[in-house]
Amino acid sequence: MTQDTVASMPAATARVVAINEDVVTIELDDDDAGCLIKNEVVYICPPSSVDRPRTLLKAEVLSVKGNEAEAQVYEDTRNVGVGDPVIQSGQQLTVELGPGLLGQVYDGLQNPLPRLLETGGTFLQRGLEVRALDDRHEWSFEARVRSGDEVMPGDTLGVVQEGRFSHRIFVPFALQGTFSVAWIQAGSFTIDTVVARLTDEAGNEHPITMAQRWPVRHPLSQELVSLGRAERRYPEAPLTTTLRLIDTFFPIAKGGTACIPGPFGAGKTVLQNLISRYSDVDIVIIVACGERAGEVVETITEFPQLADPHTGGSLMDRTIIVCNTSSMPVAAREASIHTGTTLGEYYRQMGYDVLLIADSTSRWAQAMRETSGRLEEIPGEEAFPAYLESSIRKLYERAGSSTCTAGSAAA
Questions:
Q1: Could you give the maximum distance between any two Cα atoms of the chain, in Å?
Q2: What is the pLDDT of residue 409?
Q3: What is the role of the protein in this entry (predicted)?
Q4: Residue 226 preceded by cis peptide, ω within 30
Q5: What percent of the chain has pLDDT over 70?
């Protein structure tokens, strides 16, 4: 996070009252300061000095009890002390959705690693936050609606060409109700340029850009189904991996889920890489959750050099990599899978078949175990949290086949 961003943040409304490694307890300064909300993003402000400029450490509220809350910090809590001010953002942990996602390598909080390298150097700096999408690149926007048309959240306003894919620009999913297109333009614009203006039933105007945000812990498909903008379907078509052992004895359906169990060194990652290369899907999202840094580096360096068997182009042109290695903060490891899942739901809503590979679920569960232990929760089997089963179930339930607003089916 830049110094300009730090200066523009609102005043602190809470303070740190206890610290247990990456889990801190925060308390509101007074009753008039507002309230703490579960899953809200807050920023902790450790003291600054001449050698250490002021930084904001990103954290997420895990639980709330009265005026106190437990928050997990996505950074090293070194130099954080009791009494340090805490700034509330009033927003949940979100990802940025828009053209330019394909071919990117992100960390668990959707910070692009190449831009982190440009901004902060080889070693990750604490408190550094970079925008997920390139706000300088211009995209050719082609309008698909006209002034006066009525639209709803999830409807397509236009498309831009992202490589060989037609990237749909949706009416923001967070809006509610029916809107009238007051104005729309076509041409080459950046993601922050207003390309349309919508008017709601009360006459209020909403400017629309090509980028929007969505909370990672709230299933996008669930919201669209509740609005009647999508429909869940039973998986019908098989996912052809081109690996005869899997396709014959352990077939996977498009929209289904599968796991590859095995001990350390059994070749699970190698098998997953083969599946991601040759499966008959449109988009591939790889979430390296707690994996060894060497394996992640191998994936990052190999994929741009490998040819896509379907198009002959680079395999990275249809791939997004979310990597949170074992050497990165444990708290961000737990959020990385939700980040990748939300990106997959976004492209599925465009009508594309998306393959999400999370490597590995066990290390994701280990991150939950560490956080649960620091919260002093009653442990379950093997010290995992008692809610581990329901957490895994909620994650796997986000997979599935659905019919998007354009009428096409995707999984």
A1: 64
A2: 67
A3: Produces ATP from ADP in the presence of a proton gradient across the membrane. The V-type alpha chain is a catalytic subunit.
A4: no
A5: 95
CB 320 within 8 A of CB 356: no
Q: Is the pLDDT of residue 50 over 50?
A: no
Confidence at residue 33, expressed as pLDDT on a 0 to 100 scale: 66
Domains of the chain: 3-92 (2.40.10.170), 95-132+232-410 (3.40.50.300), 139-210 (2.40.50.100)
Q: Where are the beta strands (DSSP E) in 83-210?
A: 85-92, 94-97, 105-106, 139-143, 150-151, 156-162, 165-170, 179-184, 187-189, 196-199, 205-208
* 3-state DSSP assignment of residue 293: helix
**Helix extents (H) in 173-278:** 220-226, 244-249, 268-278
**Sheet containing strand 319-324, strands side by side:** 105-106, 319-324, 283-289, 354-359
Burial class of residue 205 (count of CB atoms within 10 Å of its CB; 0-12, 13-18, 19+): exposed
Segment (H or E) for 121: none
Local confidence band at 84 (pLDDT 50, 70, 90 cut-offs)? very high
pLDDT-derived band at 293 (thresholds 50, 70, 90) equals: confident
pLDDT tens profile 260-277: 888 888 888 888 888 988
> Could you tell me if 339 and 108 are in contact, meaning their C-beta atoms sit under 8 angstroms apart?
yes
Report, as an integer, the average pLDDT of 92-114: 94
Q: Is the dihedral of CA 131, 135, 141, 145 positive or negative?
A: positive
Tokens of 187: 């041409």
Q: Mean pLDDT over residues 199-226, rounded?
A: 91
Distance CA 133, CA 140 (A): 16
Report d(CA 237, CA 393) in Å as an integer. Answer: 23
List the structure tokens of 137.
Answer: 């690149």
Answer whether residue 3 shows pLDDT above 70. Answer: no
- Please give the single-letter amino acid code of residue 208: I
